[in-house]
């Protein structure tokens, strides 16, 4: 019937006109033109739009040469096709992307329908979609407030007293500077007659470290991290005495970090003592305290002698001296820490202690409970020079990290105890001296806090009551083992004795900062028309409704500079609600906002740091037209949950005994829960999350599970990934399972998980799971941290059977960027490299592009810059990159006066501010430009132009005579240290080349934005820098580029000169030839780092050395990409060396640019690929190449095959794009193609 109808329509048309073939084609095409990928702000039917929306669509047409002639946009609140909100009218344009809304202001939290009618050369089509606005003003969040867990910080009168106290120390000639060493302080407080002291609240800090005792019992020690004096410790102590109380503090002044000599020293403390009648008194550090530098046994005991002790000297009141007002007061009580203050280094008896032969020793300590008491648990800190494995009652609890000088980092363990006795056993190993291979210092140092079932404690330290044996008999760790024939340990001296001195840092991996659970019940009494949840968090929020996840997003909201901008999420949750009573729950994680672990990057002390908090608005609309809201306020309930510690860098400690099953369902009994605390907002402007959400992308089962060491299981996965594992196990309550993650293995087959650079104070790449002992399988899956790994090590696995592959499920977790391109050739190696490069970039996406998911997780600007084009060719990355540009811009606020450079990491804690690294700062110029050039997004240029201009003027101003410098050059060339470093070359060459390229790009940006005066200025400045560059570095002797102090020929110098068009025309070929010659002299090997590698293959290919480019690309010996693949790589590495620190690092994998632009030949010549030159690079090494990339107009594809004396080509050109095609050395002229599918053959001769 349709065929007949079509016939009569054509016949009717023929009677009224003489139809050309083109007009019939146009008529037929009108029936089949389709519109797809209807997007608002590059998203499908998004919720939460809080910017002026922009509309995009893709046209598909069966007719070659079709092009959009006009579009007509309509927006309605009622239905698609209506236009009461906005009607664009018909607009003549071929543009079909990012068309900006031009109607009246939109309303918050409102659903809009939009439709577009498109007319093309051959027909027309109409399609529609929708979007929902977010909150367009801060007031839209009302009456919701930020809530979190109540904190019990220091009382105001204690804080006031602390800030009125004096720093005290010994009397010195140049206070506050004092010699390095220890000073002991005492203060005896006598309870007034008739009163009983019931508690003490203590605020204390010391420059540099302290251990505090009360009546001789260890109370707490300061964390042993740099500048810890800046964080006061808040301690709570229960007292029950009508007598006196002795407060004793041992303070260590460390050598000055610059001179190694005297440095500032002081103790600052305030103690509030509360009595049973409710009254209180406060004592502070002043000259009434006494001190000594001659510290003897019993110094901290009430009965200890104070002969020779002298009055303390008040050095400076709080707020003065070098400390000023920099000491921060914690929001909650600090966890008391064990210390080694009463411990002794012990070993077997040797002839020349502390030297001992390289050999293992077995140690045992049997502890018997005080009469009438029952053991509950033990907290242990332990270190051994050189290595150890530790057991409690025969159960292996862990071992020392396998790293150099591991004794410097004491490990912490917990043990569940039973009955009235416990046996602690250590297998200690002394290694040969690294210089002589002979005897070396050997010692064991331990401190153990025993807790009884009644809550009281005892302490055990390493001393001469421990037993030791040199033969290490089998089963020595078991409680039943007979050690009666063993010798008593020999003391090497108390903690602080040489050669170790005070060099042990306690790794407090078990410190608790529990994640709060919050909940709220609410009713739904009428039929719903919509339910939208808006939420934001300082940190992460994992939200559930009626027991089900509110979404599949994880690790959200994304990381920002929280005091300037904070992201919110908008979700459709109508399907999760029911008629009647509903419940919403959330668990709050720390992310970077509430980081508690000290690190090189100071995330735990950043200015916007705070405890996790959340704000939510559940917007409900009903069929009858009414609306209501459920918001966070003081009526919500809160309780500490099973996540006892979470750290985005370190991992999570999860104790299933604290689970609150069903807390997020209606009817849950929350009578024991507390009211949520109303908390201040983090400070930043709330903006809808623009980048794709982070999700669990894939689940992997191990390819193998091995047991390289008894009781230690290692699971290997198919490739290096980022994420975590879901672990399922069953066993007794309090069974601790430790999960280590790593990319490499030690020689013994265990996982290399250690933080050997010591970036972090406590935890690294480790999760811990304590079972509840339900008798059923229990599952743990992290919520608030991710790791980089190929291998997972399981310690403490319960039962006699090893774990199965179903027990250890690998989760691949990263931002969910959809594929937007691909590349394939006849070369298996190039295909492997392409896949590895894309995997690497994806593994590094967690709301920012990071350097690696294992060690740093920082948004290094240079890394992101170098990989941006790779991302834009392959992935739906513009949203993430646009967000990252905002992060970059915000870091300038931390620079001097807010007018300096962006930081070298973004977001930043302030650590990366005020650097001189134009090579890395260029990200702030190049990434916005590439977003515009590849995707046509002009808004990102408009939003940041003024700041970009300000920065480039700053950079030019600190470049004398137009020559720039940088602290970050061509990082990680082959000859550098595998842990990373600058190459042996003049950094001014790369710095000045990047300065020139930034000025050139700024000229282009100014031109796009019609800032003609600025464009002219940038052009002149670029010309001046180019002249200075060639004058300084282009050698008249060699004809290529040479810097001062270069170690041999530097490929990157010359690649930058050509890649950035700095070389004079007459010098270009000679410089290119010099690069090829150097590569040949190195056996077809590169000698580039991060900066040069991106340009290496393109520059060679564009300057007559394509064969050299392919030889380097196909190389499989060091240094090369193929060398990595030959050594099992599934991702890119941080360094060319087999000893590369990171094996998931993308900044050396930038050959992707060359694959797409040269091998496939796809090179855009105008913004958004509106015009493209496709010029494939033919070589004898390849027989075919296939590539595609999704442009703003649609899918652009090319495939060429070299066979039977001809090159067969297939092109797919989206509507709106024009292509010029040629093959160097094959085609005699340029071929032009409009949209459509084009297949043709080109003779090779």
Reported for the largest beta sheet, the result is: 10 strands, mixed
Strand content: 25-35%
Count of DSSP E strands?
A: 69
Derived structural class: alpha+beta
Spatial extent as radius of gyration: 34 Å
Low-confidence stretches: 1-30
Assembly type = single chain
- Nearest-integer average pLDDT: 94
Number of helices: 17
- Note the overall shape: globular
CA(first)-CA(last) distance:
53 Å
Helix fraction by DSSP (H/I, runs of at least 4): 10-25%
Spell out the blueprint of helices and strands:
Layout: H1 2-16, H2 21-30, E1 34-40, E2 47-49, E3 54-60, E4 68-76, E5 86-92, E6 99-100, E7 111-120, E8 123-133, E9 147-148, H3 156-162, E10 166-169, E11 177-178, E12 181-190, E13 197-207, E14 209-214, E15 217-221, E16 233-241, E17 244-253, E18 263-264, E19 266-275, E20 280-284, E21 290-292, E22 310-311, E23 313-317, E24 344-347, E25 355-356, E26 360-368, E27 375-385, E28 387-392, E29 395-399, E30 409-416, E31 421-429, E32 440-441, E33 443-452, E34 457-461, E35 467-469, E36 487-488, E37 490-494, E38 505-506, E39 516-524, E40 528-538, E41 540-545, E42 548-549, E43 565-572, E44 580-589, E45 613-622, E46 627-631, E47 637-640, E48 643-647, E49 651-655, E50 674-675, E51 677-678, E52 685-688, E53 694-700, E54 704-709, E55 712-729, E56 736-742, E57 766-770, E58 778-780, E59 787-795, E60 808-815, E61 821-825, H4 828-843, H5 861-874, H6 878-891, H7 918-921, H8 923-935, H9 939-957, H10 987-1008, H11 1012-1033, H12 1051-1059, H13 1068-1081, H14 1090-1102, H15 1106-1113, H16 1121-1126, H17 1152-1159, E62 1162-1164, E63 1171-1174, ...
